[in-house]
């Protein structure tokens, strides 16, 4: 997507970055940088490759006194300009990677639907999951419909990115609008942490814990939208 004026794009991103810095001021520097990096990365998804350099330059001018933090985050987020550049960087990194690290990369590529093996592609095409009646009804599918398990995983990654981004934004806005509210996202209710723990089979996190956190986020989101 082409951005007409990089300064307009940078102004909006800078405002969100300041909000993140303010709301997460008590967190460790590394955690704040992760949040900043995620926000810049998400915003850059709407920018064409030819406009990214100008947009990032415009964004850096909004943080002249935070060069050590924000400039580093912006430069790290800019990343390779093309897919070919990204492949070259990955191959260079893999030269010194351990066998376990290479295996992890292969698994992530396969999860994204990228595989050099024809056998894997055939398995992906044939691997299906029968849906329950509740899922069929919610997705408005025909009875007996089946879905591709590989596509489920790929879609899960995108849905998590969207849901967690909205969750962070909602709570940041809530802390700004209602700083004295008794409703808080405590560490126990941090949706990002709970989902990670649940998916890795942590005995300390149940599906009920994840559902409770999502319900709390939904209620706050509904309140904000209702106020608008």
Question: Could you walk me through the main structural features you see in this protein, from its secondary elements to its overall organization?
Answer:
The protein has 228 residues and is an all-alpha fold. The protein has helices at 6-23, 29-44, 49-60, 67-78, 83-94, 99-111, 118-126, 133-138, 149-177, 191-199, 207-227; strands at residues 128-130, 146-148. Helix 1 (6-23) packs across helix 3 (49-60), helix 3 (49-60) packs antiparallel against helix 4 (67-78) and helix 9 (149-177) crosses helix 11 (207-227). The longest helix has 29 residues, at 149-177. Mean pLDDT is 75; it is low at 118-125.
Ordered list of secondary-structure elements with their pairings:
Elements: H1 6-23, H2 29-44, H3 49-60, H4 67-78, H5 83-94, H6 99-111, H7 118-126, E1 128-130, H8 133-138, E2 146-148, H9 149-177, H10 191-199, H11 207-227
Antiparallel strand pairs: 1-2
Lateral strand order in the biggest sheet = 1-2
Question: What is the residue-averaged pLDDT?
Answer: 75
Count up the helices: 11
Question: Helix- and strand-based class?
Answer: mainly alpha
Q: Helical residue percent?
A: 55-70%
Major sheet, described briefly? 2 strands, antiparallel
Beta fraction:
under 5%
Low-confidence stretches: 118-125
List key phrases describing it:
single chain; 228 residues; mainly alpha; two-stranded antiparallel sheet; 11 helices; 3% strand
